[in-house]
Amino acid sequence: MLITPRTIHLVAPSGYCHNPTAAARGIARLRAAGHRVEDNGIIARRKQRFAGDDSQRLNDINALSHMDTLPDIVLAVRGGYGASRLLPDINYPALRQRLHNAPLAICGHSDFTAIQLALLAKSGVQSFSGPMLTGNFGAEVLSEFTVRHFWQALTEPELKIKWQTTPQKLQINGTLWGGNLAMIASLTGTPWMPDIQQGILVIEDVNEHPFRIERMLLQLHQSGILARQRAIITGSFSGAALSAYDNGYDFASVWNLIRDLTGIPVVTGLAFGHDADTVTLPIGAQGLLAVNETSAELQISGHPVLPRLQEELA
Q: Mind listing the GO molecular function terms for this protein (predicted)?
């Protein structure tokens, strides 16, 4: 896959980069591929467990509203915790004015989900839930799957993602949104939760036991958010250890309960989240979800795309 060289601007609105070796490896890989990586000085920034104090991390986001020249990609260094502190002071009107219809890809996941959903709710700015610098581009073994899906999402106006799931049959369309479930649940009842009607909600998480995932989904259900969705797609839920005490209670049990409570289809098995292999999804785009027996396909359109060189299109 031929990739146009891009300008990649790093942001660190969440946790301190505790693995600078991985960050350096990610930057080296991106530069070796011909990309320009800006603002790598933020990697060493630290205040307690955060990637700098609140004002520094807030400026990473607000600075996008007054850049003379926007980069092609805004890439989060890592997740962790800290984005939620910033939400009240993000300059949403200025970001709306500067970024509206701009060919800019804002990328990240995990804790970054809070900023992505707040931008969608308050500014109408779409972003991409996908890989980050340290955990993905800086991994010891770079996932070709993740890299391929990343560039496809950022450059193709119409995406098709296929995977295997549990048997069912459906075809629906709606607004694609979601990300890290813990961050989505944390926005319940706040001004930064998007009011998505007829949505396709995609969720993932890491190091969360099934009962915690169930509790968060019940919060979304009991607050009326799930009632406004047409389907739920589950990504990876890794890192939780089940025990004899669970007695067969697992993630499948959670999905079955949510189906029974809400009547909403739950389509499992998408490679999306904290695992090495992850697709990149535009948050706020239009999705068409079709499942025929065990084959699922998600068609996505209406998201911002980066311009491509003529030879890249050939």
A: muramoyltetrapeptide carboxypeptidase activity; serine-type peptidase activity
**Active-site amino acid positions:** 110, 204, 274
Share of the chain above pLDDT 90, in %: 96
Task: Read off the pTM.
Answer: 0.96
The CATH number given to whatever domain includes residue 146 is 3.40.50.10740
Last residue of a domain, one of 101, 127, 157: 157
Q: In the listed set 129, 157, 185, which residue is the last one of a domain according to the structure?
A: 157
Closest CA to 250 of 241, 259, 263: 241
Q: What does the block give as tokens for 95?
A: 């970001």
C-alpha closest to that of 125 among 106, 112, 108: 106
Report how many domains make up the chain.
2
211 residue type, one letter: F
Range of the domain at 175: 158-301
Between the CA of residue 90 and those of 96, 117, 159, 223, what are the distances in Å? 11, 12, 30, 25
Confidence label for 311 from pLDDT (cuts 50, 70 and 90): very low
